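Posting here for the record, re: 4AD.
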Amino acid sequence: MRTLIRHVLARTEPLDEVLVRGWVRTRRDSKTFSFIELNDGSCLANVQIIADANLPGYGEISRVTTGAALEVRGHLVASLGQGQKWEIQATTFRVIGTAPDDYPLQKKGHSPEFLRSIAHLRPRTNLFGCVFRVRSRMAWSIHRFFQDRGFVYVHTPIITTSDCEGAGEMFRLVTEAPEQPAASSGTTRSVQTDAEFFGRPAYLTVSGQLEGESFACGLGDIYTFGPTFRAENSHTARHAAEFWMVEPEMAFCDLEGDIALAEELVVHLVREALEHCAEDLDFFQRFVDKQLVERLRFVAERPFARVAYGEAIEILRASGRCFDYPVEHGVNLQSEHERYLCEEHFRSPVTVRDYPAAIKPFYMRRNDDRNTVAAFDLLAPRVGELIGGSQREERLEVLTETMLAHGLSPEDYGWYLDLRRYGSMPHAGFGLGFERFLMFVTGVANIRDVIPFPRTAGQAEF
Ligand code: 4AD
Ligand code: MG
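Prediction output follows.
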């Protein structure tokens, strides 16, 4: 059985026999032996291998090139060289798959833009190894956070007929079925509309919230964690057409409880990363963002700032800043405003609450002032909006009225209104953009570099 390099390097005692498999990062030859750096993805570090020129089969060493898949058996011994505690003195090695000279990752230090063009090979680089190990750990930590608190994990549908956010940024579905091949011209394809297939227009979901509410109104506290889709034509470093969202929904919960859970989740994940992804974070700290660990420690230890929308507007107006988008009561906060608030004014994550009803979706609970809703956004330094959430409108009449005002037909949402007809109660939830969170916790500045195969406006290769 092969031993993971992570486990090899964590040994406290030498080993008489060890077997590793991985991909060659570099090879250097001297007269009497070769040094090989081998990586298997289990951690950032490589294991150093010494292949003596007297080894049987040493003649194969010229095939041990950067990128080749290699198997090595040998003794694990304390390294006399600098920079590593252990090395493997090979007794045999075998090239499993060669990599010719045109292997694109020969040199160190490729730009992220170049690496995006070879997204299928970038898991073999240091940066993307670190990013995707952290992504995996954070996904697991999200499940643990909710499961430990008794939340039920619900798989909300990906195909939906409702527009949760009401922003009209949905991908609509068509079906494409092969027709009977025409006599000579091979296969032709026919496009069937969604209306024919489902009996009504159907879309890729922008959020699992509405279906999540249905389950919260029966199972109590639930969460969904899955892919969501937005046909926003925004060419920014923070928007993707396909991204993952974590959406808890809690019965008998108000905005206060909702905000408290959002803050607790962010702190939990940051602490998990500091504790369990230390080697990867150290890499980001050295090569991506020099302030990363300091910022994460700060977030893990201090309470977040909280402010009402009206106060946030006052702070922005008093800042003396000349923003590209002028600040007035009633406007939606733009990313430059969000970043000013958390990076310069509060210097910490901040939740902004009680937004004007006019700029928010139909389902948010109307406050007693009639003009604002019980909604919040959690803003974080460098990424801006990390979480958006709200208490939901549980009063049937108010909800029906708001739907009409938003141009939605209550008949289309009969099932959603039923939740208010039968056993309605205060409930609340939020959505955390998983990739936005990963940008925050790794310091990586572009959302395309925290998604295995990014889909953004103009880009869906691989
Ligand atoms: O603020 P949003 O639109 O909220 C909702 O969808 C609610 N239904 C969530 C809920 O209450 N259950 O999106 C939630 C989060 C944002 O705060 C942001 O982090 C992320 O999803 N997000 C995006 N991430 C990447 N690319 C995009 N195009 C995103 N749009 C939103
Ligand atoms: Mg939002």
